[in-house]
Amino acid sequence: MIDAVGLRKVYRLKKREVVALDGVDLHVRQGEVFGVVGQSGAGKSTLLRCVNLLERPTAGTVRVDGDEVTALRGRRLREARRGIGMVHQHFALLSSRTVAGNVAFPLEIAGVGAAERRRRVAELLDLVGLSDKARAYPAQLSGGQKQRVGIARALAPRPKVLLSDEATSALDPATTTSILELLRELNRELGLTILLITHEMDVIKRICDSAAIMESGHFTESGRVLDLLATPGSRLARSLFPLPATEAPDTVALTYTHASDEPLMSELTRRFDVDVNVLGGAVEDVAGRSVGRLNVQVRGANRAAALDYLSGKGLLVEEVTAR
Ligand SMILES: Nc1ncnc2c1ncn2[C@@H]1O[C@H](COP(=O)(O)OP(=O)(O)O)[C@@H](O)[C@H]1O
Ligand SMILES: [Mg+2]
Question: Separation of 18 CA from ligand 1 center, angstroms?
């Protein structure tokens, strides 16, 4: 749905240049939630603004649903941009307009007639759970309600893609949860493709199918979250799912992304005559799947064969302490 190749963005200031994007390749599949995580200044907002052409990249191409948006100008560019909704951290609502007036705004610009506009606004407010606030003004709303208006407004022109720039960063934890749940629901029910950026790993963990880490203008890792969890040495996986440190020798970390009915630990002791000592671990929901990570001490003459057996069963096996 989104294909960005070789994206570079250089801001030319009076005395110096800032390289905000330094060769980003981004591939977002139709219907997925893709999260980009990175610290302040990494280039995340610039990336989003280059995807919806609020900013023209210095080099590289962006395709959205097959259209090369970087090649479009004028009316065709404005049309393409209507297919890309955007949600902002600080909501960016018009304070002099009611909730309904804010949601209607992009429809007015697109020349949608009054009757159709009213129908569509009612439908959108229902979708985000704000039907009773249609006549309220932004100043009368909570942060979470404001963001719901921002989301309804972004969805008004029926975009194929929703971009979200730190949509929950200004919200408290409970409100963050409800907004993330709303985004997930819109993704599932409307098949909406979502590209979101965040500085919080937890946001990635809760709603993303795929993710990338961004640092100094480029991706250092990118892929499906479940694949990354099964990738040795993945930093994203380690921060999504940290394991407690252990000093015990001969310890391996086992990661599994699909629950098994087999009693693997007792199989190990029986088949390979090794000592198995489970030191700790956790099971968490990541990318809609139950993912387990365990620290297990495995000792005995057949240790290597025992670990091969676990790998063969689809577990990721990583040595975490000295042998
Ligand atoms: N309009 C601009 N003019 C000049 N420099 C900018 C502009 N926008 C962003 N930058 C710089 O580009 C870099 C990336 O910024 P940004 O994309 O906002 O990062 P993030 O969203 O990850 O915090 C930063 O060094 C920032 O100062
Ligand atoms: Mg930013």
Answer: 8
What is the percentage of the chain residues whose pLDDT exceeds 70?
Answer: 98
Smallest CA separation from ligand 1 atom 3, residue: 11
Using alpha carbons, select from 230, 227, 237 the residue that is nearest to residue 311.
230
Residue-wise pLDDT for 308-320, tens only, equals 999 998 898 988 8
Do 213 and 221 meet the contact criterion of CB atoms below 8 Å apart?
Answer: yes
Task: Report residue 266: phi and psi, to 5°.
Answer: -75, -30
What is the distance between the alpha carbons of residues 197 and 188, in angstroms, rounded to a whole number? 19
Rounded distance between C-alpha atoms, residue 36 and residue 198, angstroms: 6
Determine the Cα–Cα distance for residues 178 and 128; give it in Å rounded to an integer.
11
Ligand number, closest to the Cα atom of 21? 1
- The average confidence (pLDDT) of the chain is 93
CB atoms closer than 10 angstroms to residue 224: 17
Handedness of CA 259, 261, 263, 267 (dihedral sign): negative
Residues with CB under 6 A from ligand 1: 11, 13, 18, 20, 38, 40-46
Q: How confident is the model at residue 265 (pLDDT cuts 50, 70, 90)?
A: confident
Which residue from 158, 251, 159, 236 is spatially nearest to 198, judged by alpha carbons? 236
